[in-house]
Amino acid sequence: MRYEVGGVEADKLHEECGVFGIYAPGRDVAQLTYYALYALQHRGQESAGIAVSDGKSIKCEKGVGLVAEVFQDTDKFKQLQGNMAVGHVRYATDTSELLINAQPLLVRYRNGHLAIAHNGNLINSRQLRSQLESKGSIFQATTDSEIIAHLIARSGETEIVQAIKKSLPYLRGAYTYIIMTPEKLVGIRDPYGIRPLSLGKMANGYVLSSETCAFDTVGAEFVRDIEPGELIIIDENGLHSERFAPTMRQALCAFEYIYFARPDSNLHGRNVHLVRKRLGRRLAQEHPVEADVVTGVPDSSLSAASGVAEQLGLPYEMGFIKNRYIGRTFIQPTAEIRALGVQLKLNAVRQIVEGKRVVIVDDSIIRGTTSVRIVKMLRHAGAKEVHVLITSPPVTAPCYYGINTSSQSELIAARMSVEEIRKTIDADYLGFLSEEGLLECINLPKDGFCTACFSGRYPIAPDNYALDKER
Ligand code: SF4
User: Fold this and answer.
1) Which of 71, 132, 163, 219 supports an S-S bond with 155, CB 3.0-4.6 Å?
2) Residue 51 half-sphere exposure, CB side, CA atoms within 13 Å?
3) What does the mean pLDDT of the chain come to?
4) d(Cα 234, Cα 21) in Å, to the nearest integer?
């Protein structure tokens, strides 16, 4: 079981992965991918890897830990020489198979080599896996990511793009893939576009990334988002786009805006920081609490907290300080150690909150354990009143598309009313953003993104396996 210090992260939704690909002959593609993975580190901290193609073969280095830990031995870059690369950072819910599930996956089959980086979750993975196993496929990893490799190998097509196109219709769920052969880089986004993937351009080449913040890091310019159901091929002939499926509907994960993406990224042309500020303003309109000071839970709620403060006409202060040097830590889940951990990771600033009516802004309440601790910390630091404002609607349903939500029985908002939650976390006031408010702030068509974990409207109906796992 995985616990980070204090359980603060354990009580959050978690993005599963970040992917990056680069085609840039003449550039140091491994180093550029390394920097890009730094920019995407918030999307996964359990493993990291880079595969590089020199036009003939593919070499891969990957390991368990943060990007800096996996590549601290700079000798690893000596063998990563080539014209294109693919990189991956992974968040893991199950830490028992970290290394075997680390990506990119390197696959050798009769038509050549592939490196595969995957983000998302297939809702029909169990059926596909057992069908493939019954035909003799042997799986090494425990994740969904290997399924596409077996489908490609069994497609009967010798040309890779044809093989991929023949394989994709079997997949149901949320996925982005970056697949690299010795000669081509291929970017794929599922027909609903649940997970993000963007295209950038740089001198001598192109890049693909889960988030645009990685473009700034490597000096690339944003070109456009990959369309749902689109397949992008980058090789010596330049850039080529094909459709492998019609766009079913845009269903980008709404939590990318609320929490997952970095504030300096843009999704569908909207800057994440500015969207979060709008969420904060709207939240304050919906819940015009009387208070003295506004603060946010670092880091994901700071943009929204500044919007709340602006709207309420109150000072915005750093009421919490986050220790950035703790890193990933696995500790025994004793109550005593977890309680101590909260104070290691987050600390309330007494001089800011003492004697004040404090508004604390957070992005979500999942199990409620973090909110309990945060309110307690503020009270312990002398806050007179604690008003909790949340920039998402109550999370009442699990995610089947690659986000690690707790099971439905653990979701506090699935079991309790807002008033009951308020009492449980010991807040003087608790307010959630309405779904309508969220949709208006993101300013995309209402059915332009997935809101299933708070609306229960799943863009792709979960299959029996996904439901079984939930039970
Ligand atoms: S269910 Fe929630 S977390 Fe999952 S993709 Fe949809 S909005 Fe995102």
Assistant:
1) 163
2) 28
3) 89
4) 10
* Separation CA 415–CA 419 (nearest Å): 12
Residue with the two structure tokens 């009951």: 420
Which atom of ligand 1 lies closest to the CA of 449?
Answer: 7
What does the alpha-carbon distance between residue 22 and residue 11 come to, in Å, rounded to a whole number? 34
Q: Output the DSSP codes for 143-186.
A: STHHHHHHHHHTS--SSHHHHHHHHGGG--EEEEEEEE-SS-EE
Q: Tell me if residue 60 is catalytic.
A: no
* Torsion of Cα atoms, 89 then 95 then 456 then 454, to 10°: -70
Q: How far is CA 134 from the centre of its chain?
A: 33
Q: Which protein residue's CA is at the shortest distance from atom 2 of ligand 1?
A: 453
Q: Which of 12, 255, 267, 366 to mutate to test the pocket of ligand 1 (most atoms within 8 A of CB)?
A: 255
Which stretch of DSSP H or E encloses residue 440?
Answer: helix 435-442
Query: What are the residue boundaries of the structural domains of the chain, listed by start?
Result: 5-248, 271-447+460-470
Question: Quick one: which of 56, 64, 51, 57 has its CA closest to 20?
Answer: 51
For residue 200, pLDDT beyond 90: yes
pLDDT value for 144: 81
CA distance 457 to 466: 15
- 91 has a pLDDT exceeding 90: no
Using a 10 angstrom Cβ sphere, with 0-12 exposed, 13-18 middle and 19 or more buried, the burial of residue 151 is: buried
| Distance of CA 253 from the midpoint of ligand 1 (Å) | 5
Ligand 1 atom showing the smallest separation from residue 174 Cα:
5
Which residue is closest in CA terms to ligand 1's atom 4? 399
Choices 1.20.1530.20, 3.90.550.10, 3.40.50.12160, 3.60.20.10: CATH for 5-248:
3.60.20.10
d(CA 383, ligand 1 centre) in Å: 34
Q: Give the other-Cβ count within 10 Å of 76's Cβ.
A: 17
297-352: per-residue pLDDT in tens?
998 899 999 999 999 999 999 999 887 666 544 444 456 665 565 566 788 999 99
- Write the CATH number of the domain with boundaries 271-447+460-470: 3.40.50.2020
3-state secondary structure of 380: helix
Report the distance separating Cα 67 and Cα 242, nearest Å: 32
pLDDT at 405: 67
Asked if 85 and 51 count as a contact pair (C-beta separation under 8 A), the reply is yes
